[in-house]
Each structure stands twice: as C-alpha cells, then as structure tokens.
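sorry for the late reply, my laptop died twice this morning and i had to redo everyting from scratch. anyway the thing you sent over, i finally got around to it. pasting the sequence first so we're on the same page, its 323 residues, then the predicted structure underneath. double check i copied it right bc i was rushing
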Amino acid sequence: MECKYIEEALACYPIADIESAEVTLLRHNENMTFRVGKEYLLQIHEPVEGFQVSHIFEGVDRLAVYETEFKFLAYLKEQGMIIREPVENGEGELITRLSGGRTAAVSRWLEGESLDKLELSQEYNFRIGAMTAKLHKCAEGFQGFPTVSYDKAHCDRIREWIRGLEDRGLNPGYCREMLRACDAVGALLWKERHGFQMLHGDLSLSNILQTKGGLVPIDFAFSGMGHPMFDMANLFANIGSLSDRQGIAAGYRSAGGVFDFEALDACFVLSVLGGIAIHFEQWSKADWFADRMKRWCGEIMGPFGRGERLYREDFYLIHAGER
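ok and here's the structure:
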C-alpha cells in the first residue's frame, strides 16, 4: 500500500525522472517521509499506527492547516531563515490530494545531518538556542490561518483524553495528577495568550539539521500558535542535562530571546502531556513506561499542579535534580 501512494504522489509532479528515482523511507511518525533520488523529499500525511494526533488537529481543516504550514515556511524564508523549499505539483499546488483522503507534499532535499545523530557539545547547544531565538524573531509577524493552537482549548482536549485513561487501566492517582496539571497549564496559557506567536511546535534534535549554512529547523508539521516557551520546553524535554539546558539558554538569550519561567514551567508540562497523548498506544506497552509515568507524575505533574516551580533561574529541574 505504501508503494501505491508513493507512485501516485510522484506522478503528480512534473519533475524529470522523479518517478524512476530511488525512494528511501527515512522515518514514519506523523508522516511517512522519504528521500527521492538526490534532490527531493516526499512526505505522505499518514501517521504510523498508534501515533495519535486528534487532540492537536481537532476542529480544524487538516488540508488548510498544511497550506498554512507552507505559507509559514515561505514567510520564514523571506525573513532570512534557511528552510526546505516546497515544490509545486502539476496543478501549481503545494499539497497533493491522493486517493483515500490522503495528502502529500514534495520539497527540495536539504543536505545535512540531524543533530540526534551527532555528538552534542556546548558549542552546538549555544547554536541551537541562537537558532531558536532567530526562528522566533523571524516568525513574529506571521498571521496565517487556519493553524493549530497550543492554548487552553488544546489543554481542554488533552484533559478529555486523560479522563478516559482510568478506564484503560492507568493508575487513578496518575490520572488525577495529570488532570490537575493540565488545568493549571490551561489557566496559565489563557493568561499569557496575548504573547502567542507562530512556533515550530515540535523542536527536537531530530528536527534540526546541521548544514553548510548552519543549523536549520525542519519538519514543521506541528507548527502553530503558542507561547515561545513551548519550543524551548520541547527542546528541554529532549535534552536532559543541566549543562545542555544552560548552553541552549545562553544561545537563546544571546540572539535576543527572553525567558518567562512561569510560562516555561507550564509549557514543559504541556510538552510531556502532549508526548504521552501522542505516543500512549505505543509507550504504554513498553517495560519502561510504568516507571517513567511514576517519575513524570512525581517530578512534573504533581508539583506543577500544586503550584510549585519546576525550573530554577539557572535551569535546574527542581524536583528531578540535575540529569
């Protein structure tokens, strides 16, 4: 079936030899992502089994959101960011409709290595922070619509999902901790809503390339409106040590980024809750999940739900200690 959609998608692009080019699957998360020959990247919007994103896209037109994503990328390029450039199909459109309601998009290949495959250093951490600040600055004026929003309504959707977990065997105490934390995040984001702007929405080492031109953010599938600290929280959730967080923070500040620690705490909780919601079907079957869930509730959900701080001003994660 995968082959069928690849052939159908590529046939829509008037690019010489694209249909006969070698196609390599790179990863399958929210999309199936392929390298096509040496010059193109194909994404088919079909999540891997068990990858749940309904709480992110509920109530929005997915096709229209994809179109906003490409408008956002074009806007970032105009502001001086290096981005993967989308390619129009034979109809002059950036989104290609496939059979079965699926959609696809083709971009020009951007040569580079994702940071999750490289050994990080303090220099890399500093550059990650500086790149994120540049991304936020370049994105400030973007007004595209529709798009997803990482706001109180987003928290409310996660809350409804959490309420069903007890029936699926999750510890009732964990459910209560998550619900309290989710409500606290929603209240904080409502208060901070006037500071929202367009974000990457899924910033992690695997979504940053080291290229000849420097660090480049890729894969904007979850881009949307939210507090700038959400991108920083996603980075911090994926990069565990205190020294790494401090290096990223130093780079962010050096390029004009400003930290709001109250929002950072809330967005960090939201990042963890969102990750659980997306991956629960897969993660809950893993041996490590029960222990990790206990830690998340003890170190993050519980303290935040009780009104306690998570991060000190030096980026020490208070209830977990330095990791």
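The longest strand covers residues 23-28.
thats about all i looked at so far, will dig more tmrw
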